[in-house]
Automatic annotation (TrEMBL):
UniProt superkingdom: Bacteria
Family annotation (Pfam families): HxlR
Source species: Caenispirillum bisanense
Record-given protein name: Transcriptional regulator, HxlR family
InterPro entries: ArsR-like_HTH, HTH_ArsR_DNA-bd_dom, HTH_HxlR, WH-like_DNA-bd_sf, WH_DNA-bd_sf
Transmembrane segments: none
Gene Ontology MF, one: DNA binding
Protein keywords: DNA-binding, Transcription, Transcription regulation
PROSITE patterns in the cross-refs: HTH_HXLR
Signal sequence, renumbered to the chain: none
Stretches assigned to the HTH hxlR-type domain: 14-113
Keyword Chloroplast: no
Length: 125
C-alpha cells in the first residue's frame, strides 16, 4: 500500500467534491443501500425494490455507477439474458463512510437533525 498523500485545504476540497460527484443522482444512494452486504440483484429485482424509479433512470444510474467502478455488472449468456449487479470491493467500502455520515447527522442539534433525517426532505428531491 502506498503512502497517503498530504492534502491542503484546496486539494482536500477538490478530492471530496470529485468523490461526491460519483454519488450524485436521485437514486444512486438507494441503489447502493440495496446492494450493500454483498447482495447480488437482477435488474428487475432492483426495479421492484425501488418504487418510483423508471427503467430508463435505473439503467442510467447503474451505468454511471458501473463506469465509476462502484457497481459490477455480470451478463449471463442465456435467453433471455440474465443481468446481475453487485458492488465492487471499492463500492462495498462505501458502507462505513455512509454509516459515518448518518451517525454525524444523528448527532446534529435537534432542530437541524429533524431536517436532516426527515423522510419528507428525501422524498421531495
Amino acid at each position: 500500500m502506498s503512502e497517503r498523500p498530504t492534502y491542503d485545504a484546496f486539494s482536500a476540497t477538490a478530492g471530496i467534491q470529485h468523490t461526491l460527484r460519483i454519488l450524485e443522482g436521485r437514486w444512486k444512494l438507494v441503489i447502493l443501500f440495496h446492494l450493500f452486504g454483498g447482495k447480488v440483484l437482477r435488474f428487475s429485482e432492483l426495479e421492484r425494490a425501488i418504487p418510483g424509479i423508471s427503467q430508463k433512470m435505473l439503467s442510467q444510474q447503474l451505468r454511471q455507477l458501473e463506469r465509476d467502478g462502484v457497481v459490477a455488472r455480470t451478463v449471463y449468456p442465456e435467453v433471455p439474458p440474465r443481468v446481475e449487479y453487485r458492488l465492487t470491493d471499492w463500492g462495498q467500502a462505501l458502507c462505513p463512510a455512509l454509516d459515518a455520515l448518518l451517525l454525524w447527522a444523528e448527532a446534529a442539534p435537534p432542530d437541524i437533525r429533524a431536517t436532516l433525517l426527515s423522510e419528507e426532505v428525501s422524498a421531495a428531491d
